[in-house]
Amino acid sequence: MLGILSTLLLLGQEIENSFHIPSYEQRTPSVVFSSSLYPISQEESHIFDDFTSEGLVLFDMETNEVLYSKSAYLSLPIASLTKLVTAGVILENYEDLSQIVTTPELPSDHVFGMSVGMQRGLQFTLYQLLKAALIQSGNDAAYTLAIAHSENLDIFIEEMNSFVRSLGIRSQLFNNSTGLPVSGV
User: DSSP for 25-62?
Assistant: First the structure.
């Protein structure tokens, strides 16, 4: 499990090295992890007072201390954070991220919204798909990862739910690989 989280953190470090990351004052996240990359103290946590997000938790990963919270127990949709779980399932099951995947038929009810413009029959490595899903929030890339792994979205969703339960998360139930709203759910 630590290997998966380490891989996600390394991918996150690559994202930070590839893109300009705005300062905390410019972001409105739901969850912020404080680390040596962005050190912040309890005394400095007041900068989050004016954030307009419905909920916010500032957590120091080194000390396991909650530095700041606003509506921490409010149940909110996690939207594209779902893609982190999709990535976790893939990283848990594949050591070789250079494996080639062919884009399947992309049903419009699963890939609307953010897209990297994938079309059926195109080929990508698992690594490219992970970057497209996580960096560009590509719903088409997340769906392609799910189908490439399980060939059936329902089976992949079961794996996602098992994966988060193995991490001790019991309050979240996933219904797709993208975080998109599902009608009737």
Answer: GG---SEEEE-SSS---TGGGGGGTT---S-EEEEETT
Q: What is the Cα–Cα distance from 85 to 91, expressed in whole angstroms?
A: 10
Answer positive or negative: Cα dihedral of 138, 160, 3, 34.
positive
- Residues in Cβ contact with 137 at an 8 Å cutoff, skipping those fewer than 6 apart: 80, 83, 114
User: What are the pLDDT digits (tens) for 153-167?
Assistant: 999 999 999 999 998
Q: Where are the alpha helices (DSSP H) in 42-180?
A: 82-93, 108-111, 126-134, 139-150, 153-166
Measured CA to CA in angstroms, residue 116 lies from 71, 161, 166 at distances of 33, 26, 31
- pTM more than 0.70: no
